[in-house]
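User:
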Amino acid sequence: MHVLQLVPTLEVGGVERGVLDLAKGLIARGHRVSVVSAGGSLVGRLTALGAAHHQLPVHQKSLAGIAACIPAVTQLIRETEADLVHARSRIPAWIGWAAARRAQRPFLTTAHGFYKPHPGSRVMVWGRLVIAPSEALGHYLVERFRLPRTRLRVIPRGVDLEEFAFQPPAARQGPWRLGLFGRLSPLKGQEVALRACARLIRQGLPVTLCLAGGAPGLPARQALERLIAALKLEDHVEWLGLQQDMPACIASVDVVLAPSTYPESFGRSALEAQAVGRPVIASRAGALAELIQDGENGLLVPPRDPEALALAIERLVNDPALRARCVEHARRRVEAEWPLERMVERTLAVYDECLTRPRILIWKLSALGDVVLSTPSLRAIRRQFPSARLTLAVGRSAYEAVARCPYLDDILIDQPRRRPQRVRRDLGLRRRLREGAFDLSIDLQNSRRTHLLAWWAGIPVRIGYRRKLGWLLNRGVRLPRVVLAPVAHQHYLLRQAGIAPDGDTLELWPSPADEARADALIRPTGPEFMRLVGMHPGGSGRWQTKRWELTRWARVCDALAQRGVRVVVTGGPDERPLGEELRRLTTSGSPHLLIGKTSLMELACVIRRCQIFLAHDSSALHLAAAVGTPTIALFGPTDPRRHLPPTFTGRVIKKDVFCSPCYSPRCRTITHACMDRIGVEEVLSAVWGLLAETDRPAAPLA
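Assistant: Predicted structure:
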């Protein structure tokens, strides 16, 4: 694979040296590495390893600088054919996130600090996966940045045990040499170390504090020099400057200090000191407490406490057995838990997960029937991406249809809201989409809202039909010029996206409890040998134009009852008044009303037990097709060529009138001719014909 890393500069530092360590391990395994930075003293070492370096001002903290770098990094990703983008700092992360989105590449981050959770730092948890070098930092990102734990990968940094080979301490001559290696910053605790040394000098313990980093004239060094003069430590401080040979620098001291005043994300200098064989005294803050077992492989002290640090130094230098134990245990633990090879392998596993296990979001927020019709597409997408994490965005009313779907890993439920609350709802949904860090959006809904949400959430690859804000898609597909059935319409989109369809069979996944409940509901309707006919006279309350007149349903019920046929009437909870009115209109035996008494899967099991089923163009029609029950479908304002399920068996009754199909919830001619012209005798004739063809005992749902 080809990995593109972004880092502000390549000067000497823990993050920058980590970039070199990873590049060395990846190149040794045959991978390509490119690094984008503003340059620095480590560029030569990087290119000597075989990596490519591209110098861009990705360190500039300005909107103009960020905006200028995004097109350049995007072009670089495309020209070098980088497989993924890995950012290691906040400004490069903003650039890398935008460039990876444009180039349609996976983006991941490594967090190297306990950032304050302000908007400028949020990008560090926008990666497809987020790497933290310690459990302490990982927990912080989960708690303060609301990073989902499923996207967090804790990978401690590693130590090159050949470069940082064990070097037994030489016989000490002169004062004790205390090393503090890190950038000159109040966060690294140089001031605390100086005040601790002043205490030790006053107590008569000869020590020299060796400070690495910081060229003369830098404000941070000047501030420390003023403190050194105030504490009269000029003869007890040695400035080492910028060090390229860190193993030799560590070996030149007797004890290494890490008195950080702020939680460390890892503590690289402490780990390297343990590898070389020098005892470590560190603050009990952040990841340092994970590296150091107090009294076993080092000593821990409270942060910002010079007196405690002085006491720990005195204890260590006066106890040879303690020093020897700390050195021995530390080296053994470094070899067991933090070798560089392990860090490289675990990072490679994260890269492999990004490239081979994409997170795919499938949109289907519409009505229940449309969700049932999407099951062949879900099956095809799973077959195309067997190791991917598939998430379906679905409306609350249709959730039960896919709750037990074996092709999905997760379901994102879109809660219905009234119009004034839609903006708040979409903001919340956008947040959940960002938390999901999806790589691919497949829009089977194809609405303005779903196109906008996928773009707004920053999903890199967005597939759908190019209509209704279709310009927000970056892999848009033109609508077919011919009329296609609903599943064929989805299959056309999948084919254009390179996904092979997997048949037209609709699926449902009821539980054994649903089966038992359906048996219990049907049992009171009469003897099992009697023929059973189901009907669904209701449907969407918004689409009154799809409904056949209730008096005609009542006449069908009477005719069936007179011929000894059991009738069950199904519907949703809000259709109970319709059922009572139907019962009042019947005269030859009351139908068995199950309206509002079944869950969705229980309804499917009931329909499966019917010999035939009658319904409008509604979700019940799709349920019947999914369970294989022959159905008489009454169509009016909609076109059966566009809405009839592919596995439909039975009869379609539709009248050709000049205004149909109109796809209008309200009849524009007032006559409602498309439904009124469907006669009772015509429906009964279809019922008798289907009953004759399907005269078989009811079977349980497979």
